[in-house]
Amino acid sequence: MHEAQHPMTPPSATRRATITDVAREAGTGKTSISRYLNGETSVLSPELRERIEAAIAKLDYRPNQMARGLKRGRNRLIGMLLADLTNPYSVEVLQGVEAACHALGYMPLICHAANEIDMERRYLQLLTTYRVEGVIVNALGVKEELLQTFSRGGIPVVLVDRSVEGLVTDMVGLDNVAAVALATRHLADQGFDEVLFIVQPFRRVSSRRVREAAFRDTIGPLAARGVSGSTIVIDLADAAPALAAIDANLDASRLGAGRMALFAANAPVALRVALHLKERYGADWQQRVALMSIDDSEWAELAGMTTVRQPTYDIGRRAVEFLHERLEGARMPARECLLPGELVVRASTRRDNSQGI
Amino acid sequence: MHEAQHPMTPPSATRRATITDVAREAGTGKTSISRYLNGETSVLSPELRERIEAAIAKLDYRPNQMARGLKRGRNRLIGMLLADLTNPYSVEVLQGVEAACHALGYMPLICHAANEIDMERRYLQLLTTYRVEGVIVNALGVKEELLQTFSRGGIPVVLVDRSVEGLVTDMVGLDNVAAVALATRHLADQGFDEVLFIVQPFRRVSSRRVREAAFRDTIGPLAARGVSGSTIVIDLADAAPALAAIDANLDASRLGAGRMALFAANAPVALRVALHLKERYGADWQQRVALMSIDDSEWAELAGMTTVRQPTYDIGRRAVEFLHERLEGARMPARECLLPGELVVRASTRRDNSQGI
DNA sequence: TTGTATGCGTTATCAA
DNA sequence: TTGATAACGCATACAA
């Protein structure tokens, strides 16, 4: 660690100008300044308006959002709770949220819980103290009661990707049923006769639950076409058992000369499985086993992995719009917006791949 | 999009309790409540304290940070400007920032400019209006003047990863010179006799500039050992020319029976190059050409790519600490904290890889 | 068209 | 040990 020799800017720390300063500088009252700021420009004489503009420019005045919010009762802050920014899904949703916020004049207060349930609670509390006008929640273990305090306080809540048991509120996410069906049928169409659906513990996370159920619902009828499947639950913190189970299934299928495909329920699972396959089968693991997943991460193209791309950007945008409508006073029943996923077919599941049927 | 049938929670929208409500409920004055909130617990009679606690619990009172901030002049908000959350580097730095903020009682106000220079400006303005106490900046095109308004206003600024021309302020980042030297020497040690350093346009981004210079400074002396190298500039928005140049170099090297390695200056570049190599050489591109990079992204392990891992978490933590010290009133010259990177050797650059010398 | 006075929820100053 | 009261920076009802 080096020290630079130049000193910091001298302690000329000038206090930021307030509306009072501007009023004095412009030789008028605070009200006029306030009017100018709020665009009530028609009621101001051109002459006064000019003086105000000059004063603002000269003092580099910026209205204090805090004070503003205190007075009008809304500060344009929207809370965004994210379970895991490490998951590209979250980042992409965030982009949509940011864009929509910008367009509608909100400022997202982003809280990243880093997969810690306790953090989620703390952040939600914090959002409360900052008096956000609404919250968008993509959490892991937040329970209904916690969110109810928002709803009850008149703070609209929008859920992203996963619903929360016992809570009836706006929610937006992937149409999981359709997405899983799409993917599963694709695998069947490509000639795979056995599909292993790999998912994290799903009791408590609705999207995982729905995806798993959708998988079983889709694979069931496919038995008529000779296609079967089963679910493997993987705990990313202790993946060994699940990975061993996958290996066993793969081996058995190979013995019976079957064609098996692995279907990861999301990107983190896919990555973990891919790493394992690479370890077990070497660099050309993709020649040996077919892997697909929900979530189109940046490395999917590199790995040539078929995926279902989520409409992440739109999910984020929609979430903000839902919030905005409530904030504008719309009263209506809770809504559910399920957006369709898009199948991105790559080499991993193409008929000519794998042991080249 | 479906409509759920349950209505939203009834419009019982109860206003959040204020300090006045609590005072009334506890049968005392606001001052005592304020004292309790600020931990001046010693000056309160146990009896009164209990009543206050009860009132707070009953009303589920949460002090309004906005009002607090307005009064005390500091709101515990720290601005964090990120050029690109799509880059895992940023997310990791963010994790460090969040952890440190939490530990020190700050709330990070995260602004994601999504690689748009204009957004950076707008967000910086916004941060100003929210009266953040300090800012951490990892931007693309922010210029000195813009940041000066913060410094001059007494708002400390900490730069992350890249410095800004003409601005003397605290800065935290990777020790680029050491990292590039480490990586380059590793390549030489592994028997590569030619290294192509691939970097985005670097005039305006200090870290890229420094890395490029460090590469040349390191590769120069290695000529004695028969190792040469050159730089290729890649524009991710229009990568074709650079990729063609890479191909040409690769072909030439192969003709001369040389062993060439590609060295990407960061993860986004590495991904782009890897995608291209896969396209050109097929799924086993890694058998054909050696690629390494700065930044240890999640797919690096999957691709078996050697990298230099940045101490991202510590960078974020350190940035907040720098800020905190200034906010606590420490006056000192601008500091520069350069943290060491860690070489993560994988198959891509091992001697036995590639055309197996 | 402009300005005065009051209050948003909190903390700080002062007096009791 | 406690409690009025006056700000903080701004927006609004109201008066001029």
Estimated helix fraction of chain A: 40-55%
Strand neighbour order, sheet with most strands of chain A: 3-2-4-5-6-12
- Based on Cα principal axes, name the global outline of chain A: elongated
CATH architecture of the largest domain in chain A: 3-Layer(aba) Sandwich
Q: Tell me the quaternary state.
A: homodimer
Number of domains of chain A: 3
**What is the number of E strands of chain A?**
13
Please tell me how large the radius of gyration of chain A is: 27 Å
CATH superfamily of the largest domain in chain A: Response regulator
In percent, how much strand structure appears in the residues of chain A? 15-25%
* Mean of all residue-level pLDDT scores of chain A: 92
Distance between the termini of chain A: 60 Å
Total number of helices of chain A? 14
Low-confidence stretches of chain A: 1-11, 353-357
CATH class of the largest domain in chain A: Alpha Beta
Report the sheet with the most strands of chain A, covering strand number, pairing sense and barrel closure.
6 strands, parallel
H and E string of chain A:
EHHHHEHEHEHEEHEHEHEHHEHEHEE
**CATH structural fold name of the largest domain in chain A:** Rossmann fold
Q: Count interface residues per chain for the largest interface.
A: A-B, 77 and 77 residues
Look at the helices and sheets of chain A and give the structural class.
Answer: alpha/beta
Domain HTH lacI-type (chains A, B): 17-72
Pfam family, one (chains A, B): LacI
Organism (chains A, B): Caballeronia choica
Protein name (chains A, B): LacI family transcriptional regulator
